[in-house]
Amino acid sequence: MVATGISVGRVGKRGFPTTKRPKVQKTKKTSKHRVVKDIVEEAIGIAPYEARLMDLIEMSEKRALRFAKKRLGSLTRAKKKLRAVEDLKRRIKRRQQERLNEQQKLQGATATTTTQK
Q1: Where does the record place Polar residues bias (predicted)?
Q2: Interhelix angle 61-72/75-116, nearest 10 degrees
């Protein structure tokens, strides 16, 4: 028997020759994308489930991970979101601390000027 080119693929999956569809490739993340994402995050804020995640992180990281997994569908996405929310929380805390330090400096400066007069 001569091969005709009809049987294609592995032994269990024989069939007609087909052309593969082109794969959808992920686009490269650029700095422009990051800037746009930051602006949107700043304008809109955080989603309600992200706020709940912040609260759950304080109580139990395992519980927060389970909550994120249920909302996002997969463990990998949940871990990534958890890291992002922890980072966001850290940035918010740092900003609050900087504002507090600035206020204390201003109060200290006004107190010294009033005592000098």
Answers
A1: 103-117
A2: 120
- Averages of pLDDT over runs of 10 residues in the chain (117 residues) are 56 66 83 91 89 94 96 96 94 92 86 65
pTM over 0.70: no
Q: In the structure encoding, which two tokens stand for residue 38, read together? A: 């930051």
Q: Does the residue 51 lie in any domain?
A: yes
- Give the integer Cα–Cα distance in Å for 13 and 65: 40
- 85 Cβ neighbours under 8 A, 6+ residues apart: 50, 53, 54, 57
Q: Centre a 10 Å sphere on the Cβ of residue 10 and count the other Cβ atoms it contains.
A: 6
How many domains are contained in the chain?
1
Q: Check which CATH number belongs to the domain holding 38 and give it.
A: 1.10.10.1760
Specify the pLDDT at position 108: 82
Task: Write down the residue that tokens 């995640």 correspond to.
Answer: 53
